[in-house]
Design goal:
With 463 residues, the chain is an alpha+beta fold. It has two domains: 206 residues; 152 residues, 2-Layer Sandwich (Heat Shock Protein 90). The protein is built from ten helices and six strands. Helix 2 runs antiparallel to helix 3, helix 3 runs antiparallel to helix 5 and helix 5 packs antiparallel against helix 6.
Length: 463
């Protein structure tokens, strides 16, 4: 039972572990999916924000150069005001772009440097309408080549470098994203593998447990069927024994008691006739024959009574009844028999006394009819709340099956005494093998009873 409970507990824990792993795997898959999607969105959003801002700065740098060129093509006071307004707009837009970059990428140290350089360049351009309005074309050309073109090229190259750096960062983020996704996938595969392993393990244990239960159920069903067959045979045998006992009793009554009473009636009639005729020469002989017949009839009735139910078992107790049975066995079979009795109580329940008496009776009967034994030992001992009975012989013995019963037997005597033992809550053990005799041990719980009243602790009867 403990083993069954242990297996059931293991199966419950196994099923719970499989379900837990599946739930964790589903949760991990959802978490990986959400995390991957968030990382991917953040990476591309960050890249798009920076690239849009850098594109705006490159466009403004390009527009600033175009606006200055248009001013130099047509250097008028009106064009100077237009240029100043255009440069102010570019400056304000650049200011917003750099503020946005400071929020989305506060860790980038390149942006403040580019911002200062671009602000210096725009400040230089904002001074052009006031300083270059009336200078000759040659000097304007020299100013453009000396101040504007190199700085614009440097700024443009710096913005391009920032774009390239953003692309490299995007590539690095994508690589990290791929690694993170791969790591999450490995964790998920590990959890799924663990779930599959636990599922296989639980399945194996479940299959084995089911097979064991099926085998036990089949074995139990076979045992029940066998027990049912044995009980049916036992019931049939009991009816047969009962009928045989009745037949034997009827034969004994007819052959022994009936004939003895008929002869007794004849002898009494002859004695009456002799007494009536006054011839008493044979009267004493007739009365002696009648007395002998009456005595033999009484003895036959007593033998039949003992065979059916020994009154000594009810009148004197178990120990004297067993002693009488052993003595009768000695006279009947001539087999040497040793009887040992120790501390047997006089207050044993009637079912216990009957069981012990019938078990020993059946064992002695088997010894006489089948064993070919030359010596038999009967021991009855009461101690520690148990009554222990042992009958052992040195006969031929027999082979036992896995249930401790004879492999080959035509009778049901041993099965009957085993059933008797089970009725009173006892156990019967049969130990035998071909060539080494037979030992029948009966153990019955009797509780704490008063010991026997006789002063002798043990009695022995041998022949």
């Amino acid at each position: 039972m403990v083993r069954k409970l242990g297996r059931r507990s293991v199966l419950r824990v196994g099923y719970a572990a499989v379900i837990l792993v599946l739930i964790l795997s589903a949760f991990e898959a959802y978490r990986i999916q959400v995390t991957v999607a968030q990382q991917q969105v953040e990476i591309f959003r960050h890249y798009v924000d920076e690239e849009r801002a850098l594109t705006t700065l490159r466009r403004n740098l390009w527009l600033a150069g175009i606006y200055v060129r248009d001013f130099f093509i047509r250097a008028t006071p009106e064009q100077a005001r237009v240029l100043a307004s255009q440069l102010d707009d570019i400056q304000r837009e650049n200011q917003k772009v750099f503020e946005h970059l400071a929020r989305v990428s506060p860790q980038r140290s390149e942006f403040p440097k580019v911002r200062r350089s671009l602000s210096d360049f725009l400040s230089l351009l904002q001074s052009v309408p006031g300083t270059m309005l009336h200078v000759p074309d040659e000097e304007q050309f020299q100013f453009v080549q000396r101040e504007i073109v190199p700085r614009r090229g440097e700024l443009y190259a710096a913005l391009i470098a920032l774009s390239n750096a953003d692309q490299q960062r995007l590539q690095d983020d994508e690589n990290r994203f791929t690694d993170s996704r791969h790591e999450g996938g490995q964790r998920l595969l590990l959890m799924l593998a663990l779930g599959v392993l636990l599922s296989v393990l639980v399945a194996v244990i479940s299959i084995r447990h089911s097979d064991n239960l099926a085998d036990k159920a089949e074995k139990h069903f076979s045992e029940v069927e066998q027990a049912k067959g044995e009980l049916q045979r036992l019931s049939a045998r009991l009816l047969e024994v009962e009928e045989e006992g009745r037949r034997h009793l009827a034969r004994e009554l007819h052959d022994e008691i009936g004939q003895a009473l008929a002869l007794l009636q004849i002898e009494i009639s002859r004695a009456q006739a002799a007494a009536s005729s006054g011839k008493d020469s044979n009267l004493q002989e007739r009365l002696g024959n009648a007395r002998a017949l009456a005595a033999r009839t009484v003895q036959t009735v007593r033998d039949m009574s003992v065979l059916l139910r020994p009154t000594i078992l009810d009148d004197l107790g178990l120990a004297p009844a067993l002693q009488f049975q052993v003595e009768h066995f000695l006279k009947r079979s001539g087999i040497t028999c040793e009887y040992i009795e120790e501390n047997v109580s006089d207050q044993l329940p009637d079912p216990v006394k009957t069981c012990v008496y019938r078990v020993i009776q059946e064992a002695l009967h088997n010894c006489e009819k089948h064993s070919g034994a030359s010596k038999v030992r009967v021991a009855v001992q009461q101690s520690a709340g148990f009554l222990q009975v042992e009958v052992q012989d040195d006969g031929h013995g027999f082979e036992l099956n896995e249930k401790g019963m004879p492999v080959r037997t035509s009778g049901l005597g041993l099965l009957g005494i085993r059933e008797r033992a089970a009725i009173v809550g006892g156990s019967l053990e049969i130990d035998s093998a071909p060539g080494r005799g037979t030992r029948i041990a009966l153990r019955i719980p009797v509780g704490e009873l008063a010991p026997a009243a006789s002063p002798a602790a043990s009695d022995q009867v041998t022949a």
